[in-house]
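Re-run with default settings, no changes from the original entry. Doing this only to confirm the output is reproducible before filing.
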Amino acid sequence: MIARLLTFPLILVLWGFSALAMLLPALHALMLDDHSVAQAFFYSSALGLTFVVIIGLAMSGRQTGEATDIQHLGALFLAYTALPLYLAVPFYEGLETTRFLNAFFEMVSCLTTTGATLFDNPGRVPEPLHLWRGLVGWFGGLMIWVAASAILAPLNLGGFEVTASAEPGQDAAGFQRFERATATKRLHQMTGALAPVYLGLTAVLCLLLMVNGERAFVALIHAMSTMATSGISPIGGIHNGAAGYGGEVVLFLFMLFALSRLTFSADTLTTGRQSLLEDPEFRLGLLLVLGVPLLLFSRHFIGAFDVDEMENLSQAVGALWGGMFTVLSFLSTTGFESQAWEAARGWSGLGTPGLILLGLALVGGGVATTAGGVKLLRVYALYLNGRREMERLVHPSSVGRATAGSRRLRRQGAFIAWIFFMLFALSLALVTVLMAALGQSFQNSIILAISALSTTGPLTQSAAEVPIDLLSMSAPAKLVLCAAMVLGRLETLAIIALANPGLWRD
């Protein structure tokens, strides 16, 4: 059965799985006696499965060659652009009070694990539609887990170009002498290896949230959105939940999976280090998670000293925890706020530290994880290069103390990381200019651009002094944000690789 499915195009297989997934919200709506929503999902599922079966039967008699890596990359791009058109159909039909463009925006936001929503009031959206948003975001996280090792790693994209010996978008020359698994077989193997881990971690997290007092439905959505780093919530955020600080501790531990792929798999090693404590991404992520809150805590502590609140130790500990949780949440591009974040912000009378959240989202999480942003490995490569250049300023004739891998990381790797950073900056400037031209203020344009390109949708509600009303934006502005979210998820180098005609030659 699986071998037969592998003979069909990847986009068709993803379409079929999406159609099957619609049966879950249909069943949930039926249990709630919401027959209109149940019919919307059931009929959409039936139509989608019929379409897949018809196309599959039409292609079953054709002799097609084995799909290449670049063709799978094209299918991945098509999944982020065309598949949301189908995913939006039951959302549009079930809600009945919105335009199809808004439903399409929601599905692009969920599939790219951005998590930006047009509906500020969660009560406007029925529970089955919240479940569908969570499922789409969860499926998007699994898709990027598998695609990172099966599609992006062989093409040296998605952060792997920093440590690879080949050019981005091309195979390493040293591996051309050896026969390796085909792209389709790698997809099968990686899905079989990672899907049970992804599903198991989500189930464990959901169970732990329920143990801490969260309602089962809310716990499931928060568990799926944490593993996918989408930040989707049916109640407007975890600070409105019933799990309390115990739930935040559990979520904090599971958000660590977004700092490095070594936390859950060793199939793609970005460095030669097998130990998690020796992984530069994980160590840099922990440094930010501990360092940034301590700096904020120091400023708050001095401010509290000035107003004679030194004795309020419990509030100080709460403010420190709120800073640590929120920093990790935005560094992993999840976007959840701690219950103590408000206390951390107002403890010493400081304003909204939106610039700090924007910077954390720009840095992002680890390579080949569900997190977005520039990625920690690229930042580490630029750091190594900068440190070495400073050493040469002091001792021009010095010889660097590094292995071949580290030397490659701080030279060619830093060069490619700098190229990506410049492409990211140009994309950020372009999206900012477009959003400003379409009626947004300069501050809101920057926040919208960063939230879309870093796939951190909750920034639109947390980084600005006044939450941005996405629903009131014009249709062109929403389409620009959709394009920016796809660009932020696939990254600029992957889009450039798709546009290279030389890679499509048979």
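The chain has a mean pLDDT of 86. The longest helix spans residues 404-437.
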